[in-house]
Amino acid sequence: MVNQNDIQMINEMEWLIPSTHRQDMNGNVRIFASRHIIHDCLSDLSLDQAVNAACLPGLVGEVLVMPDVHQGYGFPIGGVAATDAHSGVVSPGAIGYDINCGVRLLSSQVEHSQAYPYLGDLLHALYAAIPTGLGQGGLQSLYEKELRNILEEGSQWALRKGYAGAEDLQATEDGGRMQGADSRKVSERAVKRGLQQVGSLGAGNHFIEVSVVEKIFHPAAAASMGLKEGCVCLMIHSGSRGLGHQICSDYVQQYQNAQAKFRFNLPDRELVCAPIESPEGQAYLAAMACAANYAFCNRQVMAHLAQQVFERTLAGKCKQPYLHPVYDLAHNIGKLEKHRLGKVEREVFIHRKGATRAFGPGQAGLSERYQKIGQPVLIPGSMGTASWVLLGTETAMLRSLGSSCHGAGRVHSRKSARKMIHADQMLQSLDLKGITVLAGSMKGLVEEAPQAYKDVDEVVDCVVTAGIVAKVARLRPLTVIKG
Amino acid sequence: MCIMNSEMGTGTCGFKELNHTADVAVEVWGDSIQALFFQAALALYAIAGVRDEVEVHTTSKIMDLHLRETDMEALLIAFLTEMLYYLGDGILFNPQEISIQGNSLEAKLIGKEGVSVQREVKAITYHHLQIDFYGDIYKTEIVFDV
């Protein structure tokens, strides 16, 4: 296990495990974290997993670890690793089972003081309108042909069907449609799981949250994003549901058989991979893009429903009762990108698992709306704690492969959380803070208690101090729906 | 004969939940490889929040299962992935007559429909998955992505 002596301090927020730590590493591991968070990291296997990730064939540069890191399987959650776009590999486990698990934020000009008396109505109306929880409950059961259109078109399907406007797609990573999707590379089982879940939240740590902009730190960026201090926002955290899980499972299993063929000898079976340009690699990329598109469309449909509910509930009671898109991004994804490594610009395949793209100003791939200021980076806190809106920077492009953290990160297991925390006390504590929660499962709710997570303010301070992102706004939760 | 005491860490067959930061981990054991596989299915159902017994007289679905993988761990993953897939359709299968030869498995699945779960299990992972044989007992850890 990695211990304190294996970690070199670069500065108070940056640490290094050199590639000499183990013979099979192809690069260093660089950790963006405070001393306190480094200490926490040593109590689970997250840094060992980062070291294992550094063994990926064709690794380019360093494995990066964000301050919300915690142990995953194979690849740590809060990890970023790039491989050569032509001679490198793709590893499904380094992207995750919930492909394009991500976050969407919408803003409004509705003052909290005006909305306050109607927040309960709004919460219940959202809960009634948007399917949450386990298994079934999508917006509509689709014919298979229509689902395959979603897999290949993403949010553009939603635009065609009237669930999105042009501004929604402009405010979504990749315009809500990842290129290269081929639904023929998705198994029948994955398709079957996806048919009934379009427009549904899911369970676990997925949520819909109504919050208020508590403080603005970057007025110009906030204005571009439509964020106004004291006004209400809505955030959705969800992913590709059963379809994405099945796709990852299918390819992790398929790749087990292929490791001998490719002569790969990886330290962890969840890191199984295939050369990007092999048929196996190309098949996964095509399927991954399908799952990504499904998730973009899923969040788009839920956002559309939320917009309708918001307007219906607050019309006649609050001025301008409209929600507008700020941004939608992925935090479990693989992307082909160009990055400057040393003096050379290289095309690489970036694995982000529990990590968010954080492009700085002027980057290709950003929509016109955010070209000048940089990409919004959305950091949901744990239940009942703050969420953050940040901004990608030029430093992120130079130091962190244009990446940042994605949330608070767990510190306690679900089992420990159930032992430590009682549902009634937790709800009471949230109520004292003025936060109302609706959840499908009390057991699931307790597992998501804030005590089970790191301090999101501390996590954000790490990446801000490292220069990867800049603060735009802090959001305080008001009401939460948990799946 | 399998003496089962789930969640208590005793008996020749059983399972118990372990601590894992992000997901759910169980330790599973059995006095034969077939028993280990059976207990792993019960562990999956327990984690998903389904009761761990199927009343055979309410059977509504019978299926034969044939699997072949590169090694025993991959076979276990494939087996549990099958159980999970059908659970997603509301079908709870009780795997009977499990036969494991080399890296192949055959089983008769007897199940009932209309079952619901309390927790979504996304996948079964290879993390810490290694089937060991200690003093007449097969044992492994399994981590579920939830």
Notable characteristics:
heterodimer, A: 483 residues, alpha+beta, eight-stranded mixed beta sheet, 16 helices, 19 strands, 34% helix, B: 146 residues, three-stranded antiparallel beta sheet, 2 helices, 37% strand, globular
Your description of this structure?
The complex is a heterodimer of chains A (483) and B (146). Chain A has 483 residues and is of the alpha+beta class. Chain A has helices at residues 35-41, 46-53, 112-115, 119-129, 144-153, 155-160, 166-170, 188-195, 219-225, 241-262, 279-314, 394-399, 414-420, 423-432, 442-447, 456-465, and strands at residues 8-11, 14-17, 29-32, 59-73, 75-84, 89-90, 102-111, 207-216, 231-238, 274-275, 324-330, 332-341, 344-353, 356-357, 376-379, 387-392, 403-404, 436-439, 469-482. Chain A is built from 16 helices and 19 strands. In chain A, strands 7, 8, 9, 11, 15, 16, 18 and 19 form an 8-stranded mixed β-sheet that branches. Chain B is globular and about 40 Å long. Chain B is of the alpha+beta class and 146 residues long. In chain B, helix 1 (33-48) runs parallel beside helix 2 (72-88). The chains are: A alpha+beta (483), B alpha+beta (146). Chain A binds chain B through residues 44, 70-74, 77, 97-98, 134-135, 189, 193, 202-204, 242, 245-246, 248-249, 252-253, 256-257, 268-270, 410-416, 441, 443-444, and chain B through 17-24, 49, 69-70, 73-74, 77-78, 81, 85, 88, 90, 116-120, 122-127, 129, 143, 145-146.
